[in-house]
Design a protein that fits this description.
248 residues, alpha/beta, 8 strands, binds pyridoxine-5'-phosphate
């Protein structure tokens, strides 16, 4: 049976990484501009834009979020740590969605899922305030039962399964991780939660994930921005969407 089409959220963090390699916030330069990249990705078929405002502002900056909110015609998914500072920023901008992610200052990228089970008490008031502001809350979790159970208890409308382990494994271990993701997606749907997935996805590894029928959205960044060096961003977004559609 054909599955419903899957949305692609394009993560533009690493356009900002390249910009910041040359332009400090004070220096005022803005090339390459992550907002221009977001608008281009949308013309190429991106269904949404994802941006992670990190505590140390290593890529996306506060003014990028303001401009994305003003200029985007598709939903903005704001990735952020569950902190008071980030909560205030989200409540100020009211993006379509907030994806709560774990954040460690020393990590190079988001290295694992949120411990929704261990941090449930701290997450309750944050999720409640986002919910009251009309923001769709997503929890970025590992595809395991304990975390999914916590997401159900926290009444999260969306979970995003961390595909980093899947992306880095091979052979039988990868197949096993793929099954964990597929089983978790089915269980999420059964519990009324919309499952998404992302992290480490590429042209070569996206198809088995895109074939999981319950997954409604993938969020992909690093590979698309890297590939854009060779083919341009519009092409890399179009090609990824074509591969996702072919897998359904
Ligand atoms: N989803 C979440 C929650 C993430 O933190 C990231 C990385 O910032 C991504 C998706 C995209 O991962 P990648 O850049 O590896 O495609």
């Amino acid at each position: 049976m054909m599955s419903a089409l899957m949305r692609l959220g394009v993560n533009i963090d690493h356009v900002a990484t390249i910009r910041n390699a040359r332009w400090t916030a004070a220096a005022g330069g803005d090339h390459p501009d992550p907002v221009a990249a977001a608008l281009l990705a949308v013309t190429a078929g991106a269904d949404g834009i994802t941006a992670h405002l990190r505590e140390d502002r290593r890529h996306i900056r506060d003014e990028d979020i303001s401009r994305l909110m003003a200029e985007l015609t598709v939903p903005l998914n704001l990735e952020m740590a569950a902190t008071d500072e980030m909560l205030a920023i989200a409540l100020h901008h009211r993006p379509h969605a907030v994806c709560l992610v774990p954040e460690k200052r020393e990590e190079r990228t988001t290295e694992g899922g949120l411990d929704a089970a261990g941090q449930a008490a701290a997450l309750v008031p944050i999720i409640a305030q986002l919910y009251d502001a009309g923001i769709r809350v997503s929890l970025f979790i590992e595809p395991d039962l304990r975390q999914l159970d916590a997401a159900v208890r926290l009444k999260a409308p969306v979970v995003e399964f961390h595909t980093g382990r899947y992306a880095h494994l091979s052979g039988a271990a990868r197949a096993e991780e793929l099954k964990r993701i597929a089983d978790s997606a089915a269980l999420a749907t059964k519990n009324g939660i919309e499952p998404h997935a992302g992290h480490g996805l590429t042209y070569d590894n996206v198809a088995p994930i895109a074939a999981i029928p319950q997954l409604a959205e993938l969020n992909i960044g690093h590979f698309l921005i890297g590939e854009a060096i060779f083919t341009g961003l519009a092409d890399s977004v179009r090609e990824m969407k074509a591969r996702m559609a072919a897998a359904r």
